Amino acid sequence: MGIRYMIRRWVWRARSMVYLLPMVLRGEVPITEWLSDPISIKHGVMNGWIYDKKRRCWRHSKVDTPCFMKYRMILHETFIMNQYGVIDYKDKVVLDVGAYVGDTLLYFLRNGARYVISVEPTKKYVNELMRNIMLNKVNSENFVVIRSGYGKLGICDFLNAFGGVDVAKFDCEGCELLLTKDPCIDKIPEYVIEYHSN
Q: Which of 113, 119, 137, 153 is geometrically suited to a Cys-Cys bond with 89, CB 3.0 to 4.6 A?
């Protein structure tokens, strides 16, 4: 990262904080999030996301979305831009590799998935995912969360453990190519993949 980029980022952050300050003073934006990630919060506010003070979570003001303990830009991509809307999930078992904070788990269940197998190796994201699940009172019979690194478990392991998968979603910050080379990849009929590679 160059010095110019760092200066631009700092200016962007400062402008976002100034923009959000009146909302912080009115209690419409939590001060902790304002301090930690003002750029994302400004993005959310400008795109219709509001902080529900009663439930202490973020939801969209015009679209029926789940409630999330923190606003993250991925929520807008998942629920408003509908980036995973290319597949019909109704009554399907979905393997969600790169579950992050549970946005896709909640998206798949809201779109009719019968069961979601969520895989996320990062402890802090798994903790946030579980809090988001509890916040939205999701039935624990409809999902499982597996905290595992992607090299430790392969697609064959999931197929053997769960008796088949109908849809696989891969967004795992670089492990996508490795997963597409798995010997059991052709046993899953549908995929949605965001890849991070040349």
A: 113
